Amino acid sequence: MPTSVVLFTADLRLHDHPPLRAALEGGHEVVPLFVRDSGIADPFRGAPNRLAFLDDCLRDLDAGLRRRGGRLVVRSGDVVEEVCKAVTEADADDVHMAADVSAYAHLRERRLRSALEAEGRRLHVHDTVTTAVAPGAVTPASSDHFAVFTPYYRQWSGRRLRDTLGAPRAVRVPAGVGSEELRSRSAAGVSPGLAEGGETLGRKRLAAWLRSGVAAYEDRHDDMAGDATSRLSPFLHFGTLSPVEVVHRVRRVGGPGAEAFVRQVAWRDFHRQVLAARTDAATADYRTKHDRWRSARTAREDVEAWRAGRTGYPVVDAAMRQLRHEGWMHNRARLLTASFLAKTLYVDWRIGARHFLDLLVDGDIANNQLNWQWVAGTGTDTRPNRVLNPLTQGKRHDPDGAYVRRWVPELADIEGGAVHEPWKLSGRDRSAAAGYPEPVVDLAEGLARFRRARGRE
Ligand code: FAD
């Protein structure tokens, strides 16, 4: 019986899974393999929130395979060695896996291909598993990738997406291929409010979002207290949901909410096509001529205040505390906290990006690093000098202050929008907010420092 290994990476699902479908074609037996890869460097491997979510996803994937007569094979170690061992144990003909974009993913693919070819086996790498449109599928006339979102989106929108594939009815796994025990979710270092992972929950969340969330997305996505975004990001990050399927199903709902939402999913593909073409953008400024951030401040005390949610700017602090509590943050909150660190405090964006990656359950090398670069003005923003004012942002996107009160208990008794400027409080309100810190920086001074630094370039 012909046999294939399917290496699962950031695609931990059974629905709409081209590598699995291709492997099963012709009635093949399949080894569904996940490797806890010792080659993936911290902080991508060691973040407790993502590890806990990953354990949920693996258990759910195993349960889905068992319902179809199969099981998940889990190994730990060097990914190439473990795949080769599984190939030998199963006497498999070939290996199927999803394409991915980071420098590490490119290296993994090259190593795997040459190790397999040396044994007379083939590696099949499938596009549009972790993206809706493959990196490089749309390009401008003069470059291998788009550096600006709007023209990218125009072409992205015009592409016909492949059809969605259903989940397989049956998966037969050959005997004699050993697996580690699946782990239950570890609690060590995990945010208390962390969401649960897995394809089953991801599909339920998507269905609920299509029913009652997406229609209002255009109007409500920036309402920080309303929490009116999909929260699908961790499911997309771990690939328990397929971006192709998400786009098809959202488009079927239609309307301005659906359109605005699909545009955000296109941002995800946009950053991936940038990283695929410029893998060094994970750590180095994308616009090299502006590479002055190595000399930006490290400002230990300011960074600590930012990480702890004690900057004295309530909306910034609320967001940083939400991140610690949930391992997730609203997009508007990510924008304004990143701008505060990189521009108002003028700290190297890599320091902030690292903290996000330590905590975010959706922490993703393409989305995180390139969004940080976008905000810092070193990336693809066409207005790199804009600075988000945390007071204006707070008043606009949390006008009643409910988001701040939810996350900053020292300010829980301050009513209405006054919560955004605790230094203006007087009398009883002032004493109610007594435990809350003074601002770490004067906004006008921060802005002037950033502009001086820009002027020196
Ligand atoms: P929704 O608003 O419901 O959007 C739907 C989906 O579209 C998201 O799940 C996500 O996959 C995609 N998306 C939305 N906004 C963006 C965006 N700006 N860039 C790329 N994709 C987007 N997203 C991550 O998935 N991982 C990260 O590590 C990450 N780091 C970020 C760091 C900074 C500084 C900033 C400004 C943004 C970052 N984002 C990251 C993008 C965005 O904030 C999150 O995807 C979004 O908040 C997730 O919530 P949601 O699923 O409810 O989003």
UniProtKB/TrEMBL annotation:
What keywords tag this UniProt record?
Chromophore, FAD, Flavoprotein
- The residues covered by the Photolyase/cryptochrome alpha/beta domain are 2-131
Q: Name one Pfam family in it.
A: DNA_photolyase
InterPro entries named among the record's database cross-references:
Crypto/Photolyase_FAD-like_sf, Crypto/Photolyase_N_sf, Cryptochr/Photolyase_FAD-bd, Cryptochrome/DNA_photolyase_1, DNA_photolyase_1_CS_C, DNA_photolyase_N, Rossmann-like_a/b/a_fold
Flavoprotein as a keyword of this entry, yes or no, is yes
The transmembrane segments are none
Q: Which PROSITE patterns match?
A: DNA_PHOTOLYASES_1_1, DNA_PHOTOLYASES_1_2, PHR_CRY_ALPHA_BETA
What are its cofactors?
A: FAD
| Similarity section | Belongs to the DNA photolyase family.
Q: Which PANTHER family match?
A: CRYPTOCHROME, CRYPTOCHROME CIRCADIAN CLOCK 5 ISOFORM X1
Q: What is this protein called?
A: DNA photolyase family protein
Q: Which organism is it from?
A: Streptomyces albidocamelliae
